[in-house]
Amino acid sequence: MIIAIDGPEASGKGTVAKLIAKKYNLRHLDSGLLYRLTGVPLIGQKFNNNAEFEAQAIKAAGQINAAQLDSPPEIARTMQGGVMASKVAVIPQVRDILTAIQKNIAKQKPGAVIDGRDIGTVVFPNAELKFWVTASIESRASRRFAEYQAKGRSDSLAAVSQAIAERDHRDSSRAASPMVRAQDAHLIETSKLSIEGVVEALSVFIDAKLADLKGSSQN
Ligand code: CDP
Question: Which residue is closest in CA terms to ligand 1's atom 23?
């Protein structure tokens, strides 16, 4: 069973994916972390041109292994880490390498809940269930701002909001696997929902799908 949860930055999809995986005894795969880990070695480096940047990014993607997902360096989760992730994410070869890793991890039984941007469209177009989890830019900015504050970071709300808008734009306008809602993804608008509320909303669809699968296996 593959459950794809896509959506824009700070929509809550990661937290929800983790809780859904736990609830249904599935593996959780945070695909964004693969892009963040690819970007980490490039942070603070100087590149003479784009070709050099791309070559380094492809090399970094080739060095990623699944074990790194369990203990990512702190910088991977920062605003800088997110910006660099979205810069390496426009490179088709990087996406191919990271997509292969995702397929490999998720094919192991009993299946997985994967969150990202292109899971339902490109990585697992045949996923049993797809969700598009989103929220207004204001809610997303205040959530991310609170997260950074809890970590003792001093980015202002305005800076966080602007960084989200820029990343949304880079993610949805790139040529390779742009961030877009799959036609068959259930839309979950989370601006006014608690995390528990979002988990409940997804669970309705998941329970129905499980009942369906059970019914068809008994026929
Ligand atoms: O957690 P948040 O929504 O901030 O982002 P993330 O899921 O950690 O993803 C970081 C960046 O990686 C995104 O802005 C995308 O540019 C890229 N990404 C992607 O291109 N495809 C994915 N399946 C997941 C992430």
Answer: 116
Atom of ligand 1 nearest to the CA of 9: 3
pTM, entire model: 0.94
CATH C-level class of 2-199? alpha beta
User: b/e per residue, 19-50, with b = 16+ CB within 10 A?
Assistant: bbbeebebebbbbbbbbbbbbbebeeeeeeee
Domains of the chain, by residue range, sit at: 2-199
pLDDT per residue rounded down to tens, the chain (219 residues): 999 999 999 999 999 999 999 999 999 999 999 999 999 999 999 999 999 999 999 999 999 988 899 999 999 998 899 999 999 999 999 999 999 999 999 888 889 999 999 999 999 999 999 999 999 999 999 999 999 899 888 889 999 999 999 999 999 999 999 999 999 999 999 999 999 999 999 999 999 999 998 888 776
The minimum-distance atom of ligand 1 relative to the CA of 8 is: 3
